[in-house]
Amino acid sequence: FPTGLPSNPPVAIPHTEKEHVLKDALCILKTKSPVCFRRMDDFDSTVNTRMIINLAISNGKAQIKALQNLMSIISAEGFIERCLTKESEEIAEDFSVIFSNKGEKSVNQE
């Protein structure tokens, strides 16, 4: 299924069905050059992104919650732009809310 989001800047969120997951994981890729993904809202269109967020979650309800949390934090103004300039450890901390139960962490921190 297409996983590219035409956000500003664009992101891609490839993920799989729970039966294919051996261990829950979140992998955030920041590429040097843009990678082309088909858009999830328009299969005939593409986006070029440098931010790829891979999800592997073994619990269906948890996957839905993680996707909701993910959409919330990536839609925060300037969040993806800031991630593209940060180091790996800082990005991991910003994205940790995806696997939290509360999902209350502020993502508007610089």
Summarize this structure as a short list of keywords or feature phrases.
disordered C terminus; 110 residues
Structure description:
This protein is an alpha+beta fold. It contains three helices and four strands; from the N terminus they run ββββααα. It has helices at 60-74, 79-83, 88-95, and strands spanning 4-5, 11-12, 25-38, 46-56. The radius of gyration is 13 Å and the shape is globular.
Radius of gyration from CA coordinates:
13 Å
SS element count, helices: 3
- β-strand amount: 25-35%
Strand element count: 4
Low-confidence stretches: 102-110
Query: Helicity level, as a percent range?
Result: 25-40%
Strand order of the largest sheet: 1-2-4-3
End-to-end Cα distance, whole Å, is 33 Å
Please state the average pLDDT score: 84
> Which structural category do the helix and sheet elements fall into?
alpha+beta
SSE order in H/E notation?
Answer: EEEEHHH
- Backbone shape: globular
Largest sheet: 4 strands, mixed
